[in-house]
Amino acid sequence: MVREQIVDVDERARRLAYSVVEWRATHHNASIQVFPDGVNRSRIVWIADLLPDDLADLVEGLMEQGCAAMSERWRPPRTLLRSSSGCRT
User: Fold this and answer.
1) CA dist., res. 67 & res. 43, Å (int)
2) CA 46 to the chain's CA centroid
3) What is the distance of C-alpha 81 from the center of its chain?
4) Along the 89 residues of the chain, how does pLDDT read in single tens digits?
5) CA atoms of 59 and 23, how far apart (whole Å)
6) Hey, which of 23, 28, 59, 71 has its CA 20 to 30 A from 83?
């Protein structure tokens, strides 16, 4: 179990800063920020600073899973097309 504490929310900058306060890390600060990236697109920048260093690979994997989940969640909906053989996307 990991317990996180929100440090700051800046809605104008679309930035959230947080810290893990209960876990194996002796130090953890992170921020996640959303930037516009063209028409109907965004880019997420997620930065984490933690100790001990040997947790870096684990946290990187967790962040990659989080990015994949966000990407899937906010992906534009697929349009279903009807054909004689059924539906396709």
Assistant:
1) 10
2) 7
3) 31
4) 888 999 999 999 999 999 988 788 888 899 999 999 888 788 889 898 888 888 888 888 888 888 888 888 877 666 555 544 444 43
5) 12
6) 71
Whole-angstrom Cα distance, residue 72 to residue 60? Answer: 18
Distance CA 72, CA 33 (A): 17
Secondary structure of the chain in the HEC alphabet?
CCEEEEEEEECCCCEEEEEEEECCCCEEEEEEEEEECCCCCEEEEEEEEEECHHHHHHHHHHHHHHHHHHHHHCCCCCCCEEECCEEEC
Q: Which residue is associated with the tokens 């966000």?
A: 70
